[in-house]
């Protein structure tokens, strides 16, 4: 609703900065260049696909007077571009983006192959199935539902292109940022940037900054301007409970040979209460949400009824008073569980093992290894003797311990979180407030995990996520798209950020 | 140990009935005829394979003066043979056997194809792997470890052949049973005798008897003469707990959208205590084990240490004081459990469903439908709204009920159990005691389930299982075999049964 009003305002050229009309035409005019950028295939797993993208970036940034530099990296080099200010004592702002995209399966792209950009619409009919229709580029696209379909159209060539258009307008308006600007472009984000932490350590000096703005991901589900202070980290684990050496006839030994599926069920069941809250002592240690933080989270316009209806449940777990509060705590999620056979393959046996795969979403207060340790201790407190993962119990272990299990886990990466009301967050809040005459949605932390965390933590810099693209962009899936409204608003947002003084007068 | 002593006794012709030497030569001489019987393929699922077997039986029993009659049955007709006594007011004893065998995979038979009978040995080496070696038929096979390998050599042409040999000796000794004898031979037991209950109802009069002796299955694990009073029945069920409509990103909604794997774990965990005893009220109702029964069960020479070592656990579930007691109770076994993905397929999701497949072994006191009803009630008492199995919850159900599940089960067949100290059991105990000068192992009920139960229950006749073959016969598997010692002892056992007066003087 607020968003519609904003665009009405934009149309009427009231309450909007003077340069917006020019910015609007420039954005519209930039679409062919964006289509050309999107036409470059960009799967980092395919040799040679990223090089034309990097050359495109070097040319575009170079033409605009940016320094460009490749930072050696295992795999494909990072690209760092820079535009220093001449102001004395200026701070440095580092933007982060990525130019590579998810792998594609062209057979699943409805309107055109993934690297032939095409305009169209996406509609969900009453039965829930999605219809894609090709469309002409409308005269005033920001007022329609027309999208640009192509791999990486949202994730994440969009913010790079938006940045370039906003920059051009800034220069046309005779302005420059009041900070040293760096923009690092990751060519392997969708390939999990396997060596990024090392590269960041190696190039710490080149990347050094006072503020980090991460240009990735979609805005809040309501498609309003959004700032995010962090993301949860992730650890994963595997828990195996051992039963008989081989599956046993459930008649001969039912009621006698212990069933590992029951024991796994009881063990997993003991880790949480009926409301889904972890009952393992210490699991939530260190997390304190003060009144101001709770107020910020209560202000996030999550449409709980809509979420419930879409996902299909009537009562959420009891961790936190609302969705945003729930995401401030580490999770302990059973992502998979298996024992014996089910369905038509079911056999009347006592299974020999029962396995659960877990994932633990981490918050800043919750070190992954500490949580894994607590889970392991809990398993032992439930009477299980733990053996190393990856091998069967020995005869001696079977003879000695009534309950046998293995547990192995590892932390993929930690969480990061920057105070949205700290210097970096306040600056960005001001920029968006000035641009849209309305405060952005403030998300204290994303529920998901992004491999940027090592980057943030290694550079030890306050980092805020500035997402720009529409939430229904089919990220990582076929028919990825960018709602043109978000393209226009994204350019406007970045103009506001480039134009906003780091420190208020 | 006792068994070795018995055969020493047999060899020395002391403490054994006068005709035993003759019986011995006759048994040895019968082996070529048995080989010919075993050479007839007998998979009921393959058209035409059973007919030569039925003709063989009609000829063998017919030559011995038995009446023979085919009882129409869906699929393959049952064969009923009879030998009435001339005694006034005699009771009727019905023997049950089956002539069909499990399907075969000839490529897995080591010594010879499944329908080319061959003598050999089976040895398990220190690493646990099995070695098969061909052997000559020894002069006194009952004193060796030599086996006859062929499909159905144990399961269950053995007792039919043993019966014929014992009968011939009985006739040679100028004796006849003091009861009307009927022998019904099922040609579809390994194909689950799908229409047997109907056939038994149709032919109730022809099959009517005062005692039923089931000649099937192996003796107790110690390979001692054994009588079994019954078998557990079986019911199966499927329990599905519903989570989100589709798998959800565990980051976006972890701690918020309820996880069905956790709920299934907690639900299954709530059905039993830590010792594996069912905690659902009423589940064990009606089961009372008096002192005499407990004594009988404690007398079964189960080698608990050996069972633990073989199966690989150190502490049995707490249902009953020993294995035999445990089998007197219905089980509630998780035979399979699945949710999401595990192992290399694991994905960081909240799964959309979690499924458990259960089997409930039934005892005579425990009607399958009653137990399924108790489990269903328990699920509802745990706060779950149950929807019909086989469809997804509707949007309205998802919006209305915090916990959604489906549960569906059915009773395959009930248990049967006959008092081993009742008239039928006492008679058979006397017969074996007179034959071997030692009491048989008395198993009150088998843990497993056999499709004979409808037969027993429809005829409403006291039924006792008289197993004769060795426990390590590879029943249902490749390399099925009959230990020749068991062949000799089986003939001796059946001679004893045919010769034993139904009622002591």
Automatic annotation (TrEMBL), chains A, B:
- From the UniProt record, which GO molecular function terms apply? succinyl-diaminopimelate desuccinylase activity
Native organism = Neolewinella maritima
Every Peptidase M20 dimerisation domain range: 230-382
Q: Which Gene3D superfamilies match?
A: 3.30.70.360, Zn peptidases
Tell me where the signal peptide lies.
Answer: 1-18
| Pfam family, any one | M20_dimer
The residue ranges crossing the membrane are: none
Stored InterPro entries: ArgE/DapE_CS, Cyt/Met_Dipeptidase, Peptidase_M20, Peptidase_M20_dimer
Ordered alphabetically, the record's keywords are:
Hydrolase, Metal-binding, Protease, Signal
Its EC number(s)? 3.5.1.18
Q: What is this protein called?
A: Succinyl-diaminopimelate desuccinylase
Is this entry keyworded Hydrolase?
yes
């Amino acid at each position: 609703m607020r968003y519609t009003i904003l665009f009405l305002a934009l149309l009427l050229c009231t309450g909007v900065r003077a340069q917006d009309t020019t910015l609007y035409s420039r954005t519209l005019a930039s679409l062919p260049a964006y289509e050309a950028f999107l036409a470059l295939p960009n799967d980092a797993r395919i040799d040679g696909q990223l090089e034309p993208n990097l050359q495109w970036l070097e040319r575009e940034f170079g033409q605009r007077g940016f320094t460009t530099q490749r930072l050696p990296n295992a795999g494909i080099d990072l690209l760092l571009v820079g535009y220093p200010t001449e102001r004395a004592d200026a701070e440095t702002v580092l933007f982060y983006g990525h130019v590579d995209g998810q792998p594609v399966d062209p057979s699943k792209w409805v309107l055109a192959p993934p690297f032939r950009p095409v305009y169209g619409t996406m509609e969900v009919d009453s039965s829930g199935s999605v219809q894609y229709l090709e469309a002409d580029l409308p005269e005033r696209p920001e007022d329609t539902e027309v999208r640009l379909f192509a791999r990486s159209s949202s994730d994440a060539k969009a913010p790079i292109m938006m940045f370039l258009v906003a920059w051009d307008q800034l220069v046309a308006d005779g302005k420059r940022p009041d900070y040293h600007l760096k923009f690092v472009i990751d060519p392997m984000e969708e390939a999990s940037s396997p060596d990024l932490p090392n590269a960041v350590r190696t190039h710490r000096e080149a990347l050094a900054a006072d503020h980090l703005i991460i240009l990735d991901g979609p805005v809040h589900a309501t498609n309003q301007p959004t700032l995010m202070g962090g993301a949860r980290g992730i650890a994963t684990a595997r828990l195996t409970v051992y039963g008989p050496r081989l599956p046993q006839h459930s008649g001969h030994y039912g009621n006698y040979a212990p069933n590992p599926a029951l024991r796994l069920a009881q063990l997993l069941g003991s880790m949480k209460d009926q409301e889904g809250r972890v009952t393992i002592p210490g699991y939530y240690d260190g997390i304190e949400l003060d009144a101001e933080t709770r107020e910020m989270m209560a202000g996030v316009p999550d449409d709980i009824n809509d979420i419930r209806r879409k996902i299909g449940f009537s009562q959420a777990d009891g961790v936190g008073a609302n969705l945003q509060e729930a995401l401030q705590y580490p999770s302990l999620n059973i992502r998979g569980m298996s024992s014996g056979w089910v369905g038509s393959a079911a056999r009347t046996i006592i299974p020999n093992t029962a396995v659960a795969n877990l994932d633990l979403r981490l918050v800043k207060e919750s070190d992954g290894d500490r949580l894994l340790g607590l889970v392991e201790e809990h398993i032992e407190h439930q009477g299980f003797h733990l053996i190393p993962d990856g091998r069967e119990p020995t005869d001696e272990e079977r003879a000695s311990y009534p309950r046998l299990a293995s547990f192995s886990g590892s932390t993929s990466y930690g969480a990061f979180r920057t105070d949205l009301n700290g210097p970096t967050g306040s600056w960005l809040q001001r920029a968006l407030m000035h641009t849209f005459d309305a405060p952005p949605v403030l998300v204290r932390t994303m529920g998901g995990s992004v491999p940027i965390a090592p980057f943030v933590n290694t550079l030890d810099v306050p980092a805020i996520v500035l997402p720009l693209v529409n939430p229904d962009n089919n990220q990582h899936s076929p028919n990825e798209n960018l709602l043109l409204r978000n393209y226009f608003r994204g350019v406007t947002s970045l103009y506001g950020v480039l134009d906003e003084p780091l420190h208020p007068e």
